[in-house]
């Protein structure tokens, strides 16, 4: 085992501990704040965001003709993850620029930010999957991406359940329904909205929304990228491709 792989396993164990911890007092307080904030937002805005999110996720992950990289094969983990981090950096910059522009326009452009940022996140997951050597033409691999998305943008309680599902993925993927409409879209949408609303609502304020939008988008891409790295490390470990 190389020093890099040993460090990757150490980071993976720390991440696993974080995924399994119980929700704390801060999480409960944040949840109450989220519910209160949501009560001030018109229901039609919430419905518009939810509808746009579902359509984009289904369109990007399960639509025909979506272009992705070919799976990267027969390279060391350090090389793979070097390229993965390069992709994350690219999407961080793109998301920050997009958040700054839409944030400067107040609520109208701020609402445009949601589907744009969502598209960047999903494309990043496509690229990361290919760099770890997985072919997203396989329906099951695209469902795995959905679970990574859930893992990154969910409450601690829901995150723990998703993690346990991914930790047994080789068995779980055999139980997947053929119809993607059987996926629990409601949980995915609600958890994602609740996770980002508190951070993103300030972006809707004209002028100051620009720097806030840039920072928040950058951090959300960072969060997704690190989650994907560890989710694929976990999978490599379970497949016996990353061992101490």
From TrEMBL:
The family database entries (Pfam families) matched by this protein are listed as: EcsC
Looking up InterPro entries in the UniProt record yields: EcsC (IPR024787)
Q: What is this protein called?
A: ABC transporter-associated protein EcsC
Q: In the record, what lineage is assigned to the organism producing the protein?
A: Bacteria, Pseudomonadati, Bacteroidota, Cytophagia, Cytophagales
